[in-house]
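Proteins fold reproducibly. Consider a sample protein:
=====
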Amino acid sequence: MHVFITGGTGTIGSAVVSELLDNGHTVLALARSDGSARILESAGAKALRGDLADLDVLRSGAAQCDGVISLAFGRDYSSPGAVARSIAQESAAVAALGQELIGTGRPIVAVSGTPAVPGRASTETDPLPTDGPVGGRGRAVNTLLDLASSGVRSTAVRMPRTVHNDGRGGFAGMLVDAARRTGVAGYPGDGTQRWPAVHALDAAVLFRLALESAPAGTAWHAVADEGDAVRDIATVVGRRLGLPVREVPEESFGPFGPIFAMDQPASSAHTRNALGWQPTHAGLLDDLENIRP
């Protein structure tokens, strides 16, 4: 399959590109810069120059390929407004890609987040939030999945809050960055809230499986660790960096503070049973042992 991918140089995207190439697919990847194009081409992909806001370029990429994986997202998380702009840009991009595939029967796999359900681990059948700070992502993904009735094999892979590789990435990576900046390995609340996680290389396998065989209109959970307590995550961070570990106000984490404070475990039992996906790489707490002091 010839696959068009956006976000192909990120933590998840670079792993997905390698996974696709290693399994006989070819890749056309959106490249925002000459540097990104060189990285993609050195990995064995073909680069298509353009930005996520270039909807005509996105449509062209989708039209040239047998399937699409949409991973790109803005990099500015400094304020709620910046996050909202990134979500709006991502939503427009996903809509353009989906519309290009109407009537073709071709697959498109989009990324979203695992929902939080009070009192239990969320499952693949739980709805995504369509209001609140990330509600726009939920609405965009739901609209894409609805294209299953219009001849698009649209699916969604829901990612946990931490996608990690070599001790970096996701919410846990943000805790590491905050600890380096402030001199404290901090966590919001009492630290018992749980965050699900997955290694980027395991997530990449699931994106490939969804692209190859997932039925139209379905959602899947890329969850390896159902939920590690945030205090346990911070404890490893503090030990690796030689810093004190303690509770800090959730406001310390800016627009992500309220989300950091949530208990949000997630299950992937259905995904594993239905698609045969089995994570094999290090769990989050073990992977955090790779943090460099």
Observations:
- The chain has a mean pLDDT of 95.
- The chain has eleven helices and twelve strands.
- The longest helix spans residues 80-100.
